[in-house]
Structures are given as structure tokens and as C-alpha cells.
Amino acid sequence: MAFSVAIAGASGNVGGELLRLVAEHPQLELKTVTASSMVGQKVSSLHPHVPVYADMVFSENTAAELAGHDIVFLALPHSKSAEVAEWLSADSLVIDCGADFRLESEADWKKFYGGEHAGTWTYGMPELLIGGAQKQRELLKGTKRIAVPGCNVTAITIALAPGLAAGLIEPDDIVSILSAGTSGAGRGATEHLFEIEPTGSANAYQVGGIHRHTPEIEQNLSKSAGERIQISFTPILVSMERGILAVNTAKLKPGATLELAHKVWAEAYADEQFIKVYPKGEFPSTADTIGENNALIGLAVDEHADRLVAVCAIDNLVKGTGGAAIQSMNIALGLPESTGLTAISLAKNGAKK
């Protein structure tokens, strides 16, 4: 059986990645791609890396264009997804790659995003530990509305959740410094960056606890810990196209060791096809994740500071967004979770958006 698919906002970075992933999925049939400023243009004008859809034309983002599809992916700016979601039938599986439906707290939404809180959809991080050995995966089965996590959120959450769930690290002294590729900033921001900065530049941004992903990270990790956590999160934009490297540290609880940490992380993710915990002394690189739906983790203990160090690498456009959307979609539809995600690697050099 083929499921009919529409991608709203297919002209952007996330939309282009969804095109690539949909093309690899044996049970998806792309019918409609919408855009705003690119209406009437061919897909090949922006996404030549997906030749199978080269002659498709971006149509206007309207209720009529999106109606009648089995699956609708929303790759739209913040607040726009909530508007478009109101057009769509309750029978369609709708997957939002933006932030509109991720947060459970209305107060957090108003503080970090502003405007009215649209509500909360089923959260699309299957591996998230949400109490004991339970994971978010079970809540995705049969759902019709999915909120895909933020890419920074994914790298930090996956890196730290096992330690909080097992009580190995303190919940109130967590620091994450995260280096992110330019594609995570959106097409317009990416182009602007390279107008004003030479290649090789790195820039901290949204410094001082104001990044919009902060409450989402805390929401996730609080579920894993079973208590309120706080994080200090500083993102750095670096001049690579794809990838996130999150270096996370937390104060160790008495008796916690590197050996115990490795055991806890390995057991937490033992059955996860898309998460790999590296052996002691080994750490991941963003180059190891390009085009793949994988999260790679390396662990260390800073004995001088008595802190755990958890390093996580992902491709922000795959495990951080598009791959997470497909993975969660598969679960919701009752398909094998890895369908369409096992042979999607890009060449390590010259990877496209």
C-alpha cells in the first residue's frame, strides 16, 4: 500500500531533506509540494539532489492543495504550522517539523516564542525515556498528530537522558555547549551568514539562556529524571553545512563512575537501531553522521571537576528533523520503524541539503 504525501513548505532546508527521505521510502507516494515565494518553480530549481521529483512544481500553500492526502508534513516557520494544521482532516497523519506543538507549558511557549499556544501533539522522539524503562515510542502508535523535536534538543536529550533516568547525574547543574551547522538556521539565515562571515567562522548566538529550544530540552529531561531539571545551553553556529556536536556536562552523584555510566547508557539504548554508544575513549564526529538517521554518543568522566561528559553527534537535517519525522511516522502507521531509513547516507564530501 502506498500512502499519499504532501509537503507544505517544501522549498526550505527541511523541506528538501523530506523530499530526499520520502524518495527513499518504499511506501510513500509524493503528490504535492507547496511553497510561498517559489510557487510555480520546479523542485529542481532548489533541490537538484532529488532528481525523481525534479519536474514537480511548487504550488501555493492552501487548504485545497493539502486536502485529501494520507500524510502531510509541515516544514513551515514557527506559528504558521498551527494555522495550516487547522485546515487538515482529522483522518490525515500530520507531522509538524516546526515548534508549534512541541511544548506542554503555555507559559513556556509565551516566554520563548510569544503569541498563543496552539496546543501539544504527540512528541516525535521514540527513544526518549519518560519514566523507568518506558519510552516515547509507545505513545506514537496510532497517533494522527506528531510534533518533531528540535534538532538541538535531540542531540542534548539523547546524550543525557539515560544518566538522569538512572540517577547518575545531578539535575540542577547541567551545561551544554552545542556546535551546529548552518542548515539548522534556515535557508535565509544561512545565505546571510556567508554574506557577512568568511568560511571558518564560529559564532555563539542566543546566548544567556534565551534559545527557544531551552524549555523543550528541560521538558524532555525532566521526564527522564522524574523531577525538574535545569540546563545552561549555549549554541554556536559554525561554518559547516550539516551536523550538530553537543558537548554536555553534568555533576556526578556520589558513587557514579565511567564504567557504570557506560553500562547505563548501553542498556538504555541496547535495542535502539539509530543510537550508538561508543567504547570508552572514543568520541563521535559530525562527519560520521552525514545523511544518516543516527545519534552517536561518547562518554567520559572529568575527574578534576567530578563531572560526566556526554558528547553526541547527529545530522541536524536527518536525526535532528527529517529522519525523526519519518521514524515517528513509521511507528504511527504500524510500519517497521527503520523503513526508508537504512540506506539514506549521503557522500561524506559534497553532501547536499
UniProtKB/TrEMBL annotation:
Keyword field: Amino-acid biosynthesis, Arginine biosynthesis, NADP, Oxidoreductase
PROSITE patterns linked: ARGC (PS01224)
Keyword Amino-acid biosynthesis: yes
Gene3D superfamilies in the record: Dihydrodipicolinate Reductase, domain 2, NAD(P)-binding Rossmann-like Domain
GO process terms (BP): L-arginine biosynthetic process
GO molecular function: N-acetyl-gamma-glutamyl-phosphate reductase activity; NAD binding; NADP+ binding
Domain Semialdehyde dehydrogenase NAD-binding residue range list: 4-133
InterPro entries reported for this sequence: AGPR, AGPR_AS, AGPR_dimerisation_dom, AGPR_type-1, NAD(P)-bd_dom_sf, Semialdehyde_DH_NAD-bd
Pfam family, one: Semialdhyde_dhC_1
Involved pathway(s): Amino-acid biosynthesis
NCBIfam families: argC (TIGR01850)
The name this protein goes by in its record: Unannotated protein
Source organism (scientific name): freshwater metagenome
